Amino acid sequence: MKILVCIKQVPDMESRFKLNSEGTWYDEADLAFRMNEYDEYAVEQAVQLKEQLGGEPEITVLSMGPDRVVEALKKALAMGADRAVHVKDDKYYQKDPWQVASVIAGHAAGQGYDVVFTGMQSQDRGSAQVGVTVAELLGFGCATTLVGFAFDAGVITAKRELEGGSKGVVKLKLPAVVTCQLGLNTPRYPTLPNIMKAKKKEILVQAVSELLKEAEVTGTGGMYPPAKRGGGIVIEGEVNDQLDKLMGILKEKTTVLRAA
Amino acid sequence: MKALLIAEYRQGKLLETTYELQAFAGLLGAESAMVLVGSPADLPKFAGKLYLADVAKYGEYNPDLHKKLVLEAVAKENPDYIVFVHSSYGWDLAPRVAAALRIGQVSEVVGLPDGKFEVTCCNAKLRRTVAPKSARTVVTIQAGAFSPQGEPQGAPQVEGIDVADPAGKTEFVGYEAAEQKDVDLTRAEVIVSAGRGVGKKENVQVIAQLAKALGGELGASRPVVDAGWAPHSHQVGTTGQTVSPKLYVACGISGAIQHLAGMKMADFIVAINKDKDAPIGEIADVLIVADVLQFVPAMTARCAR
Ligand SMILES: Cc1cc2nc3c(=O)[nH]c(=O)nc-3n(C[C@H](O)[C@H](O)[C@H](O)COP(=O)(O)OP(=O)(O)OC[C@H]3O[C@@H](n4cnc5c(N)ncnc54)[C@H](O)[C@@H]3O)c2cc1C
């Protein structure tokens, strides 16, 4: 069995974001990058499947982006992936989801992957399109938003999260793509010996120009911070002063505080 | 301009979000038709053409099959926009339709400023406008972002759609119901919710104590529930509960769109967050810029006095 895991590296969402000079994406300077949260579940599920099958499957982890994404690839290798593909693209943020999916499908075509794991969406762009589109381009079955995964006799049983806490259970034959949701599993921390072992694993570099065959079908107009809702009060300073102000406001504007 | 609206049917019922599609089409100024894989006994109120595939024949959700049905209607209607709700149905099906037609998709539209498709990114810290570049575009709209104006009216002109080969690569097995609830947050007047910012399981108690001091209930964001720090019945948001208390206190919650979807109807919102730029500040009536572990116990002490 051959497994592909697609991961993205994204900024820490608690960062302060500034815009780039064209106003079309965030400025990467001063941001700390990490593996997209949803993709950590994808890597973990792939490694669990490999363990279930006695270590037989080979796991390839792929990431598209500038040189920094090698850090995310190394983390996935330390979590248990066997080899990595870095699709080098400094202008990754100018590619739309259709192009990203076609680059991944371009790599995957002819490689004989049986299962492809992706996150259900990236934390920065959040289109939730790439995994499903890869499946469509490869002609694979696909299930999204997995909060449960089981594999037996060539069939995946997937639990999809639906609204309001209910779930939809589906079965998929291989080859298949599944997109992973928060809570699917508990991603492992790479151990020191595994980090050392990962250093010896292969990272193949491919130029995006070799794989990109499609023109974009959507483009970014502009990017901007959200308009603040009028009337919201921001209270900074020392805790007791903040509390005085807040209690005053709550007494005035709500009926929830017992008259004191 | 023409829009094809993809209505949604689940567990034997037409979903109310169907009317949000109509509201969106109205804002776009588009003439619209609808597609539904559902029951002739439960049709939306809609004054237009409805392409209906009977759920009795096609089943509730089989993505490959529903894709073919939507493509059937697209061929008949020739729309400029194919519109879904960004739901577990929409985000699963929309990219399949877009890929089959090799056209662009704009995901989870939250607004139409100056007629542009506005979406959020970076956990709602930034917004972006997306410009379609294909002649036809698939759009998914954020659930709750486009509320219907007034009572929907009209009876659709129904036209059946069929596909020859109903086989698909995914087999639908069934639904699993949500867990039993040990608390009914929808009735609570005060909800104090713990987010990932509380740091660890033990600290959720600190938040629960404030909830108690205010005579309310403990709520939680999703990562808190996923980590097992609180039961799912306490989760507020898209995949949790939708609440409308008199007071909602969000402690260490960033304000991701899926959380806001569950609590933005609260009468009064207080957020406690160490990050002044946290997107929860956009909808909070009061944002306290502080460490929850310093602020919340102090507030509990004041309220208990
Ligand atoms: C399909 C789908 C459905 C989802 N459904 C839901 C849902 O129903 N409910 C839900 O909540 N989420 C849901 N999510 C997840 C959602 O996107 C966010 O990941 C989640 O809401 C983030 O939770 P959070 O705000 O607690 O954590 P984070 O986004 O990690 O935010 C933590 C916040 O705490 C602050 N903080 C950190 N430390 C401190 C401190 N010491 N003092 C004060 N502040 C601090 C930080 O500044 C940050 O703003 C869903 C996601 C998807 C894709």
From TrEMBL, chain A:
<feature type="domain" description="Electron transfer flavoprotein alpha/beta-subunit N-terminal">
    <location>
        <begin position="23"/>
        <end position="215"/>
    </location>
</feature>
<comment type="similarity">
    <text>Belongs to the ETF beta-subunit/FixA family.</text>
</comment>
<dbReference type="InterPro" id="IPR033948">
    <property type="entry name" value="ETF_beta_N"/>
</dbReference>
<dbReference type="InterPro" id="IPR014730">
    <property type="entry name" value="ETF_a/b_N"/>
</dbReference>
<keyword id="KW-0249">Electron transport</keyword>
<protein>
    <recommendedName>
        <fullName>Electron transfer flavoprotein subunit beta</fullName>
    </recommendedName>
</protein>
<keyword id="KW-0813">Transport</keyword>
<dbReference type="Pfam" id="PF01012">
    <property type="entry name" value="ETF"/>
</dbReference>
<dbReference type="InterPro" id="IPR012255">
    <property type="entry name" value="ETF_b"/>
</dbReference>
<dbReference type="GO" id="GO:0009055">
    <property type="term" value="F:electron transfer activity"/>
</dbReference>
<dbReference type="InterPro" id="IPR014729">
    <property type="entry name" value="Rossmann-like_a/b/a_fold"/>
</dbReference>
From TrEMBL, chain B:
<keyword id="KW-0274">FAD</keyword>
<dbReference type="GO" id="GO:0033539">
    <property type="term" value="P:fatty acid beta-oxidation using acyl-CoA dehydrogenase"/>
</dbReference>
<feature type="binding site">
    <location>
        <position position="196"/>
    </location>
    <ligand>
        <name>FAD</name>
    </ligand>
</feature>
<comment type="similarity">
    <text>Belongs to the ETF alpha-subunit/FixB family.</text>
</comment>
<keyword id="KW-0285">Flavoprotein</keyword>
<feature type="domain" description="Electron transfer flavoprotein alpha/beta-subunit N-terminal">
    <location>
        <begin position="3"/>
        <end position="176"/>
    </location>
</feature>
<dbReference type="Pfam" id="PF00766">
    <property type="entry name" value="ETF_alpha"/>
</dbReference>
<protein>
    <submittedName>
        <fullName>Electron transfer flavoprotein, alpha subunit</fullName>
    </submittedName>
</protein>
<dbReference type="GO" id="GO:0050660">
    <property type="term" value="F:flavin adenine dinucleotide binding"/>
</dbReference>
<dbReference type="InterPro" id="IPR029035">
    <property type="entry name" value="DHS-like_NAD/FAD-binding_dom"/>
</dbReference>
<feature type="binding site">
    <location>
        <begin position="235"/>
        <end position="239"/>
    </location>
    <ligand>
        <name>FAD</name>
    </ligand>
</feature>
<feature type="binding site">
    <location>
        <begin position="221"/>
        <end position="222"/>
    </location>
    <ligand>
        <name>FAD</name>
    </ligand>
</feature>
<feature type="binding site">
    <location>
        <begin position="252"/>
        <end position="259"/>
    </location>
    <ligand>
        <name>FAD</name>
    </ligand>
</feature>
<dbReference type="InterPro" id="IPR001308">
    <property type="entry name" value="ETF_a/FixB"/>
</dbReference>
<feature type="binding site">
    <location>
        <position position="273"/>
    </location>
    <ligand>
        <name>FAD</name>
    </ligand>
</feature>
<dbReference type="Pfam" id="PF01012">
    <property type="entry name" value="ETF"/>
</dbReference>
<keyword id="KW-0249">Electron transport</keyword>
<dbReference type="InterPro" id="IPR018206">
    <property type="entry name" value="ETF_asu_C_CS"/>
</dbReference>
<keyword id="KW-0813">Transport</keyword>
<dbReference type="InterPro" id="IPR014729">
    <property type="entry name" value="Rossmann-like_a/b/a_fold"/>
</dbReference>
<dbReference type="InterPro" id="IPR014731">
    <property type="entry name" value="ETF_asu_C"/>
</dbReference>
<dbReference type="InterPro" id="IPR014730">
    <property type="entry name" value="ETF_a/b_N"/>
</dbReference>
